[in-house]
């Protein structure tokens, strides 16, 4: 007698799979469920001895209490340039943590639009970027990617004013009273957001390259043989492989790139793994330039470097119809915080910005220019050539003005070149 087989139970997907959109109607497709972003509970910094609020102390190198002297060293491990990098994949973005790991508030400036993370309870009433007091405070969002590395502050807050005053006193074309009369209320220590990129670039170039050669020819009008240089053009091509690492792109549009470039470089060998303890009591800048936009900027910089490398591969100064194709591989990114002291100061009813590198102590920023000094210097440089030229014109009538005119032209060229450099430096000093 035949036995009947038990009915088959319906198939069930694994517990970590979910249905996804199928290209075929009536067919159900399952895929692994994406990992949820890791969100940690924020740390609240209270002294275990007296209950007062603690903060990261630069001199102590750890979280300290200014009331009872309690200190807790920060355990961030130094990783330097070998810090972990992420590939440009959705999985890498999803696995990136979406919280700063510490309780902060968000300060929004209604004047310039800057957003800065500030410690809870901070009574910040001015924006460090534009000195505006039109600011609002709200709870910080947790939707941003969490930094994976940072460089701790090495310069203490007490050192910033002395370095800034010394910097303000430098430069002959600035107001003499600048160092003494510039009002800098306080420097704000801020961790600025930076994207760091790395990639390998394979560049293939093609161009017409010219090579000089000397040939003899007969000059019929002079009835003699002469020589001349001619250029022979020929098409050439080549390939250049270039590896770029640790390319820094600022993550915020409210920071002056002109000033920030003058603060570089940072010593990336001092990078440590991100630890919320470093942000205790300090401000941090939330990025407003997303990863994709920053990568577009980074690729442009890398393409320029690849183009320069290709031009160096051509052994001739004569190049025309140059073209290049750049293929990117092994692209990787890292999100870091770098230490900067920032202040907006007033001088003669105008606002200027100054920054101090929180790692190296270098200073950069805007400085007003005493333009009367600049114009006086330019006049002094051009006056000898103009005066000698005028004398030469007067002597032309007696046939001896050619030499003075020639010397005057040389003096004007030298004076004009130096004057242009002075003018450019003065304009750059006020620019931001």
Structure description:
The chain has 432 residues and is an alpha+beta fold. It has two domains: 246 residues, no CATH class; 60 residues. Helix content is 24%, strand content 32%. It has seven helices and 17 strands. The strands form three sheets. Strands 6, 7, 8, 9, 10, 11, 12, 13, 14, 15, 16 and 17 form a twelve-stranded mixed beta sheet that branches. The protein has a three-stranded antiparallel beta sheet with strand order 3-4-5, with no helix packed on it. β4 and β5 form a beta hairpin. α6 runs antiparallel to α7. The longest helix has 29 residues. The radius of gyration is 32 Å and the shape is flat. The chain starts with 16 loop residues before the first strand and ends with a helix. About 1% of the residues have low confidence.
What are the salient characteristics of this protein?
2 domains, alpha+beta, twelve-stranded mixed sheet, 17 strands, three-stranded antiparallel sheet, 432 residues, 7 helices
Number of discrete domains: 2
The amount of beta strand, in percent, is 25-35%
Report mean pLDDT, rounded to a whole number: 80
Main sheet? Answer: 12 strands, mixed
Oligomer: single chain
The structural class is alpha+beta
Outline type: flat
Kindly state the percentage of residues in helix: 10-25%
Cα-to-Cα separation, first versus last residue:
95 Å
Low-confidence stretches: 37-42
What is the succession of H and E elements?
EEEEEEHEEEEHHEEHEEHEEEHH
Write down how many β-strands occur, each being a DSSP E stretch of 2 or more residues: 17
Rg estimate, integer Å: 32 Å
Our count of helices gives: 7
């Amino acid at each position: 007698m035949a036995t009947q087989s038990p009915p088959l139970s319906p198939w069930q997907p694994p517990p970590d799979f979910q249905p996804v959109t199928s290209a075929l109607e009536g067919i159900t497709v399952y895929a692994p469920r994406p990992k949820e972003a890791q969100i940690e509970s924020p740390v609240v910094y209270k002294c275990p001895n007296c209950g007062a609020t603690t903060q990261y102390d630069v001199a102590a190198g750890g979280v300290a209490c200014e009331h009872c002297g309690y200190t807790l060293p920060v355990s961030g491990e130094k990783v330097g340039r070998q810090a972990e990098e992420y590939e440009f994949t959705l999985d890498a973005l999803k696995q990136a943590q979406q919280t700063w790991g510490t309780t902060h508030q968000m300060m929004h400036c209604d004047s310039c639009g800057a957003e800065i993370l500030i410690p809870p309870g901070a009574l910040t009433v001015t924006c460090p970027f534009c000195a505006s007091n039109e600011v609002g405070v709200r709870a910080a969002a947790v939707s941003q990617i969490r930094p994976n590395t940072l460089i701790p502050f090495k310069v203490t807050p007490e050192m910033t004013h002395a370095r800034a005053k010394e910097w303000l006193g430098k430069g002959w074309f600035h107001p003499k009273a600048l160092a003494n009369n510039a009002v800098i209320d306080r420097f704000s220590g801020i961790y600025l957001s930076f994207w760091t990129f790395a990639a390998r670039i394979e560049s293939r170039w093609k161009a017409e390259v010219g090579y000089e050669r000397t040939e003899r020819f007969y000059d019929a009008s002079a009835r003699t043989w002469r020589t001349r240089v001619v250029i022979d053009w020929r098409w050439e091509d080549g390939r250049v492989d270039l590896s770029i690492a640790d390319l820094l792109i600022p993550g915020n549009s409210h920071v002056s790139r002109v000033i920030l470039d003058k603060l570089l470089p940072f010593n990336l060998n001092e990078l440590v793994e991100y630890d919320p303890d470093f942000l205790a009591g300090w401000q941090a800048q939330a990025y407003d330039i997303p990863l994709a936009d920053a990568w577009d900027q980074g690729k442009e910089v890398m393409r320029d470097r690849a183009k320069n490398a290709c031009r160096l591969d051509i052994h001739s100064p004569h190049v025309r119809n140059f073209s290049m194709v750049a293929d990117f591989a092994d692209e990787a990114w890292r999100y870091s915080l770098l230490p900067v002291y920032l202040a907006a100061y007033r001088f003669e009813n105008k606002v200027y910005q100054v920054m101090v590198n929180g790692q190296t102590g270098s200073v950069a920023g805007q400085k007003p220019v005493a333009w009367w000094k600049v114009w006086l210097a330019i006049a002094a440089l051009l006056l000898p050539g103009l005066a000698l030229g005028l004398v030469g014109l007067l002597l032309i009538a007696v046939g001896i003005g050619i030499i003075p005119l020639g010397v005057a032209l040389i003096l004007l060229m030298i004076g004009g070149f130096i004057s242009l450099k002075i003018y450019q430096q003065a304009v750059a000093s006020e620019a931001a």
